């Protein structure tokens, strides 16, 4: 192994620190950097470092899969899809590299030739995994993995996110700590650069969050993870949280995705997915969803620390065990966060209280114990890596890549069980819950989308609606129904009971009729708020109108009513439809 200086930089043969000032011939020499990943999670950590080398034609990038992990399946899929150069492990062992970059010390990294730089495999060192090393050692700082078989240190440089991590390494090995330096966290820089109000709004628009609260469940992997201990929680929350007030997402550790497999994972989560659960991809998309989040529900996985750095409130959902290390940043974050108990019926109140009682800066203070050099991580990492390479860094700054726009949310549930109650002010409160899940209380009626709902729901629905197509001339001899004709036909096709058939014309207008009444036009006013008007899903407003029509059947339809969705109120005006409105094509 090469000689080393105390600050972790490789030394030249005459004992001088390697710098970029090695002559024009050295600067022109191509350098090959090997990114050695043992799992998908490790690979994702390495991909976040790529801006360090962006634009430098002297650098060649190679990737290899370090054998030995149960979770290595598809670890290099993203790289191969991008067309990057990959090397089989046997070929990687057969040559020497100018730099070997890895995230985490596990596997046969010692067999790779070239100066090795280790990054943490996650946000800090919060867990001990007895099955993968020493029982009471932090995963990533375990002496069993920090040494080569010959007893020499594994890494030439440990690039950590916070000085406390260097101190923890020193408690394990003073010699290893002498090779450590603090560079920050490249992924955190991506979070910070992507968390501007406008970009967050962009993410929420893509996710179709609207004015709802986005609740993100965060599950690590292993037997103590949220999804293992409470596998029904996504569907349970989807059943009890009013759809018009909350949106749900699940951020799942890549190892758990590999353990389950894509097909089984989709099958297990199908009830929650049909209810609108977001399931972002393991690379990048999950981070975009966390940026968009209003509140998190997390076990002891370190991903929640990134949300804490953005000052998002958190509900703890870790029931204890052997993995979480006392005194770690995640332990501190969970200790100061309110808990989500096992009684899922109390979840709406717990989430509302967590949002109400959150104090700005309270959780960010915990993140500050895990992340230093915030916003400066790529610059610091570039300094250290180019010193190892013996090159002057590029003059252009290393800029974090913005997190990508997340994919659109699944379509809304096709049928809802709707709870309705009238308050003392005369407002009609509506809470919609996906009909295929067990509702938290008996429903007032069922509402269904005529174009997407199962026949059994349409047969039972008291409110049947469709969303109008864009008006235009029918093509190819096709028949275009009018709103008047469609509502009449729908009620004829579903005889019996008190039913309302409706066409959603726009965000502010619906056309509807009951079995005995005329075609009505409902005009919906948005709820005024400081940042601008909030528009309701007209399908939810239709349930309030239906309830009002049923209540006032003998006296005729009211001219006005107020529908409350959570804390927001929406004024509705009812009037007989005009001839032009009745003739609108649907």
Could you describe the 3D structure shown?
The chain is of the alpha/beta class and 586 residues long. Strand 12 (415-422) and strand 13 (428-434) form a beta hairpin. It has 23 helices and 20 strands. Residues 1-27 have low confidence and may be disordered. The protein has a nine-stranded mixed beta barrel with strand order 12-13-19-20-18-17-16-15-14. It has a seven-stranded parallel sheet with strand order 3-2-1-4-5-6-7, with helices on both faces.
Kindly report the spatial arrangement of strands forming the biggest sheet.
12-13-19-20-18-17-16-15-14
What is the gyration radius calculated from CA atoms? Answer: 29 Å
Low-confidence stretches: 1-27
* Most strands sheet: 9 strands, mixed, barrel
Strand residues, percent: 15-25%
Shape: elongated
Notable characteristics:
elongated, disordered N terminus, 9-stranded mixed beta barrel, alpha/beta, 586 residues, 7-stranded parallel β-sheet, 23 helices
Helix and strand topology:
Layout: H1 24-28, E1 31-37, H2 40-47, E2 59-65, H3 77-82, E3 85-87, H4 89-93, E4 99-103, E5 116-119, H5 143-146, E6 157-160, H6 163-172, H7 174-177, E7 180-182, H8 186-194, H9 197-206, E8 213-219, H10 226-229, H11 233-240, E9 246-252, H12 254-260, H13 262-274, H14 285-292, E10 295-298, H15 304-309, E11 314-316, H16 329-335, H17 347-357, H18 364-367, H19 377-389, E12 415-422, E13 428-434, E14 445-449, H20 455-460, E15 463-467, H21 483-493, E16 500-506, E17 509-514, E18 520-524, H22 538-551, E19 560-565, E20 568-576, H23 579-582
Helix pairs in contact: 9-14, 11-13
């Amino acid at each position: 192994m090469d000689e080393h200086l105390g600050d972790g930089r490789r030394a030249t043969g005459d004992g001088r620190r390697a710098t970029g000032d090695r002559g024009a011939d050295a600067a022109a020499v191509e350098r090959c950097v090997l990114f050695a990943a043992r799992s998908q999670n490790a690979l994702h950590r390495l991909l976040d470092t790529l801006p360090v080398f962006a634009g430098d034609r002297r650098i060649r990038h190679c990737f290899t899969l370090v054998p030995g992990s149960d979770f290595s399946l598809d670890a290099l899929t993203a790289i191969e899809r991008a067309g990057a150069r990959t090397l089989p492990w046997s070929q990687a062992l057969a040559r020497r590299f100018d730099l070997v970059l890895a995230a985490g010390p596990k596997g046969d990294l010692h067999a790779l030739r070239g100066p090795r730089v280790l990054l943490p495999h996650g946000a800090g060192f919060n867990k001990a995994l007895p099955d993968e090393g020493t029982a009471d050692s932090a995963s990533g700082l375990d002496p069993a993995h920090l040494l080569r078989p010959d007893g020499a240190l594994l890494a030439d440089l440990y690039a950590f996110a916070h000085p406390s991590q260097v101190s923890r390494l020193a408690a394990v090995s003073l010699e290893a700590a002498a090779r450590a330096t603090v560079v920050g966290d490249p992924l955190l820089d991506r979070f910070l650069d992507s968390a501007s109000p406008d970009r967050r709004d962009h993410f929420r628009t893509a996710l179709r969050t609207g004015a709802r609260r986005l609740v993100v469940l965060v599950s690590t992997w292993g037997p103590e993870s949220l999804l293992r201990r409470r596998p029904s929680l996504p569907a349970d929350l989807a059943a009890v949280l009013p759809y018009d007030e909350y949106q749900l997402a699940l951020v799942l550790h890549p190892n758990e995705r590999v353990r389950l497999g894509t097909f089984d994972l989709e099958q297990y989560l199908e009830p929650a997915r049909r209810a609108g659960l977001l399931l972002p991809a393991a690379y990048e998309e999950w981070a975009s969803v966390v940026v968009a989040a209003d509140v998190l529900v997390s076990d002891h996985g370190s991903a929640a620390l990134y949300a804490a750095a953005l000052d998002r409130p958190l509900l703890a959902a870790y029931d204890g065990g052997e993995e979480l290390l006392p005194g770690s940043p995640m332990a501190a974050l969970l200790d100061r966060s309110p808990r989500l108990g096992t009684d899922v019926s109390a979840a709406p109140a717990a989430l509302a209280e967590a949002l109400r009682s959150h104090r700005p800066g309270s959780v960010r203070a915990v993140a500050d114990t895990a992340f230093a050099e915030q916003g400066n991580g790529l610059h610091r990492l570039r300094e250290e890596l180019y010193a190892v390479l013996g090159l002057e860094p590029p003059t252009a700054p290393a800029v974090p890549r913005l997190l990508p726009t997340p994919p659109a949310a699944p379509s809304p549930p096709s049928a809802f069980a709707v709870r309705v109650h009238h308050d003392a002010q005369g407002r009609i409160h509506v809470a919609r819950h996906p009909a295929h899940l067990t509702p938290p209380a008996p429903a007032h009626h069922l509402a269904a989308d005529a174009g997407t709902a199962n026949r059994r729901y349409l047969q039972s629905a008291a409110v049947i609606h469709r969303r109008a197509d864009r008006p235009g001339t029918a093509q190819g001899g096709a028949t275009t129904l009018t709103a008047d004709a469609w509502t009449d036909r729908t009620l004829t096709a579903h005889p019996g009971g008190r039913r309302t058939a409706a066409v959603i014309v726009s965000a502010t207008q619906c056309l509807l009729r009951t079995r005995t009444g005329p075609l009505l036009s409902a005009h919906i006013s948005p709820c005024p708020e400081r940042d601008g008007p909030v528009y309701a899903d007209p399908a939810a407003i239709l349930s309030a109108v239906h309830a009002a029509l049923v209540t006032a059947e003998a006296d005729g339809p009211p001219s006005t009513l107020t529908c409350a969705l959570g804390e927001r109120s929406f004024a509705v005006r009812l009037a007989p439809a005009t001839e032009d409105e009745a003739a609108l094509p649907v």
